[in-house]
Amino acid sequence: MPATPTKPRQKTKAATARQDILAVAARKMRQTGYSDMSLRDLATEVGMKAGSLYYHFASKDALATEVMCLGVEVVQQAVQTALAKQPDSTARDRLIIAMHVHIETLLSESDFSSAHIRCYPFVPDTVRNELTTVRKSYDKDWNDLICAFLDKPAEAAEVRHLRHALLGALNWSLEWFDPSRDDINAYVKSLAHLLPE
Amino acid sequence: MPATPTKPRQKTKAATARQDILAVAARKMRQTGYSDMSLRDLATEVGMKAGSLYYHFASKDALATEVMCLGVEVVQQAVQTALAKQPDSTARDRLIIAMHVHIETLLSESDFSSAHIRCYPFVPDTVRNELTTVRKSYDKDWNDLICAFLDKPAEAAEVRHLRHALLGALNWSLEWFDPSRDDINAYVKSLAHLLPE
DNA sequence: GTCTATAGACGGATAGAC
DNA sequence: GTCTATCCGTCTATAGAC
Fold first, then answer.
1. CATH numeric code, A59-194
2. A176 touches chain B (CB under 8 A)
3. A173-182: long-range contacts (C-beta < 8 A, 24 or more apart)?
4. For a FRET experiment, which of A17, A148, B13, B107 has its CA 20 to 30 Å from that of B170?
5. Interval A64-102: pLDDT, tens
């Protein structure tokens, strides 16, 4: 079974290290916040020294930006994929699917997404600015879902309100959800029961 | 108009300074987070030097604890006062009143409450531990309101779910509400429209 | 790619004068 | 009550060896 040198699938050493750093950074940002994430500790957990991180990332800001950017992309991708599998479902069902996948990704899969949500308010302006594009893109996905569901124009206040209310109810789960006691399905069902019509 | 020395109403110098410190600390915690709030900057804004803060507070932790504790008490007091003025309203109306006062206090009045909400996830364990009592007390207020509204026992999952959903939808407003564009009344009305029955 | 070593700045906290 | 002065720790980031 020969290697395929024209299309090398194995990761380079640098790429692997990069991903390790990103994963640990996401977990630490989620747990301790942006400014309490020390690059020394981070490097130790990855198995290198602090200075070595700068081979992979230009600065702490740049690292945080990438973590938080991935945080949006991971959830967005998960939601879009799930929706693509149910092209014929009703607008209501599509909205509920999005809610389910969003909170599920947030709570079980991705430190990146929760790091984004928790750290965004306190991250330097330069970082926040670099996140506007991805954030707006994901916001638009929700706006489209809710527009279709409410059958209202995108600019309607009802659409924005419902979007903020739903994402608030979902994202706030970071503050209380305990997997040993709570159940994602049950919570989403409760939320779905609140939807109009 | 003589002073009333037996019941002096004027604040002592220390009490005034304490309150100044608390107010500025609340604003800075809300804006920059707990660990990015430097005591040097804080002292400068209050008009003193960093060392002087320690006459009023034993440590940065102690200061943060008091800010965040007040954050709960302010909202709780506002909600309880508003409810006491409408003793004969329905369970539904009482719940909506609580929602209204909660978000209004959060967004316009109190840096203390928003500092609590934003900083809680990242504050040292010792601080979090000292906040459990006040937090549980306010949680209970909401549980009672929702129990009455849903007519279910306090332990029912529906009650917990609706409490988390509503507080999530309300507290999340910290992340998007823009007073020049958004309207508290309109948002609360949208939320009330989602309530069952 | 990762290391060592360190620069340079800033953090919380304390002691003692006033 | 507030100040000055300072201790001591930690932080991000950089330079250069390997």
1. 1.10.357.10
2. yes
3. A173/A103, A173/A106, A173/A107, A173/B164, A173/B168, A174/A106, A174/A107, A174/A114, A174/A117, A174/A118, A174/B121, A175/B120, A175/B121, A175/B168, A176/B164, A177/A107, A179/A107, A179/A108
4. A148
5. 999 999 999 999 999 999 999 999 999 999 999 999 999
